[in-house]
Amino acid sequence: MANRPELSYCADLVRRDDHDRFLTALFAPAGSREDLLALYAFNLEVARTREMVREPMMGMIRLQWWRESIDGIYAGTVRHHAVVQPLAAAVDRHGLSRVHFDRLLDAREADMEDAPPKTLSALVGYAEGTSSSLVLLALELLSGHREADGEGREEPARAAGRDIGVAWALVGLLRAVPFHARARRLYLPEDLTTRTGVRPDDVFEFRPSPQLAEVVREVAQMARTYLGKARKQQREIPRRLLPALLPAVLADLYLRDLEKAGYNVFDGRVQEAPPGRAWRLAFSALRGRY
Fold first, then answer.
1. Distance (Å, rounded) from C-alpha 92 to C-alpha 39?
2. pLDDT tens readout for residues 121-139
3. CA distance 258 to 174
4. Which CATH class is domain 97-287?
5. Residue 145 has pLDDT above 60, yes or no
6. Cα(261)–Cα(146) distance, integer angstroms
7. pLDDT at 151 over 50
8. Hey, how many other C-beta atoms are within 10 angstroms of the C-beta on 215?
9. Could you tell me where the DSSP H helices lie in the chain?
10. Is the pTM higher than 0.85?
11. How many CB atoms lie within 10 A of CB 67?
12. Where are the domains of the chain?
């Protein structure tokens, strides 16, 4: 029996800790796949900053380290680091825009705060700054824009990418409510929890309630709205960009499971990976749909 090819550091990191994005990256062209996985590994390193530090100030220092690493990439002084070096190669090969890296890092500063977002709009803004910025970088990477189509042809993909990024983040934050509750952190909007009467301590103590389910339902509905907006662009998007947008397929599966669980985020089904994810992605990719 032939030995299984060994994964790169970035590919193995994403496979272990961000398996959904790992699956979507498999549909990227072979020549771009490792670069896409380096981008996703960077995102993973930044996204888990709060979980890796004891104090928020240490998290801010870690984010600053990544800002300086991005500075170095664009200045040509690349740090010796298992993610920074392949990321630098991806930035160079594809001419990735720095603005998206900066926006993503800026948005991640919110993770260092214990207070929940004030409003649903604020939560959407956080989702756009973090998740949508990553999708826009992935679209740039896949576009081959150095020999690309005109600006107008790429705009529908960017619009869809922003919307899918928001939806994907909202779904992920709902599924992560128990994870964040263990650390007494809450990403559910304060305006919704106040209106429905949800107390943070109830969430931290894993108490499901109709009021909490209503908050989750409203956030889930917002995710569905963004997915619907993104799908209006489907016919205008080149197939080569599809791997960056495939998380929409998985978002649908997770939203379906949330609905089946009555929007109880503490139901075990919400945390489980839906069966047949890879087949769903393959079927969507074959059809050129997300």
1. 12
2. 999 999 999 999 999 999 9
3. 9
4. mainly alpha
5. no
6. 46
7. no
8. 26
9. 9-17, 19-25, 30-47, 49-52, 56-75, 84-94, 98-108, 120-127, 133-143, 151-175, 177-182, 190-196, 200-204, 210-231, 242-245, 247-260, 268-271, 277-287
10. yes
11. 14
12. 97-287
